[in-house]
Amino acid sequence: MPVKLIPSAADRRLLDESRGTRAMTWIMAIMLFLTVLAGALGLGTRSAAASLDRQLAGRLTVQVVAPVGSVREAQAAAALRVLRGLPDVKRAVMVDRAELTDLLRPWLGSDAADPDLPIPAMIDVDLTPASSASIARATAAVLAVAPAARIDRQESWMAPVRTFMGMITSLAGAIVLLMAAATAAVVILAARSGLDTHRDTIQVLHMLGSTDIQVSRLFQRRIALDTLVGGVIGTAVACALIGLVGMQLGAIGSDLLSGVILSPRDWALLLSLPVLFALLATLAARIAVTAALSKIL
């Protein structure tokens, strides 16, 4: 016999005498609201981490730190020529000293503009393909003409940020799993409460020949519908809030925050949560009610 999701009018009259199950709808709305927010946080952080990896893959910073200005400039110019001649180098640009001065001004104040300050010469490099072999070739070529050079991979600078993003993603996933477990627990409690409330009615149904499975279907259909309706409400509110936050992040103009976006697949996953939670609630209700009914008679 197929299981109907929407209970009939007779089923609603049987189970909703006190209208106590109406609280399930709002409980599920709150649960799904929090779950969708946690899921969006995890998916958005994962997207930002992937965007950061793409931006920093194969990007190098060459610093020439010779103490003598003339030697520093000569080695930097030689390193720039060698880099631009390599087939793996997509872009190699000398960083203007004025830009470096602006970056140092918050720490050095007006002394950052002192021409005698031994600021390292810096070169930004983009490699394609971004492989260990291409990085090794670029490093060897630079050191051959500029012994005072130091080559840093930009992704190594951002490793702590990448680790933090991974932790946030894992935490959000754990929250989603905890909310699913809490939903199952709420459903079990609601099902047992409903059994206690309608114990006399259930005994009459048993005497009329109803099986435990048939009685349990009354509860699981009611709980599944409450979960689905509440889940849709909570998901709709959460998605509206996520869209508003997304517009605010886009207005900030940060390269890192601009990567916090949800793909169509992410949106599809978030929108499927009410259905998944309704199925989870149905399964939990069936198990709880069937196990409890076996002890009634």
From TrEMBL:
- Keyword Transmembrane helix among UniProt keywords: yes
Biological process according to GO: cell division
Q: Where in the cell is it found?
A: Cell membrane
Keyword Nucleus in annotation = no
Which GO cellular component terms are attached? cell division site; plasma membrane
The way this protein sits in the membrane is described as: Multi-pass membrane protein
Indicate the principal place this protein occupies in or around the cell: membrane
Membrane-crossing residues?
A: 23-43, 164-191, 223-247, 267-289
Outline the extent of the ABC3 transporter permease C-terminal domain: 174-288
UniProt keyword terms in alphabetical order = Cell membrane, Membrane, Transmembrane, Transmembrane helix
Report the InterPro entries cross-referenced here: ABC3_permease_C, FtsX
Q: What is this protein called?
A: Permease
Q: What species was this sequence derived from? A: Sphingomonas aliaeris
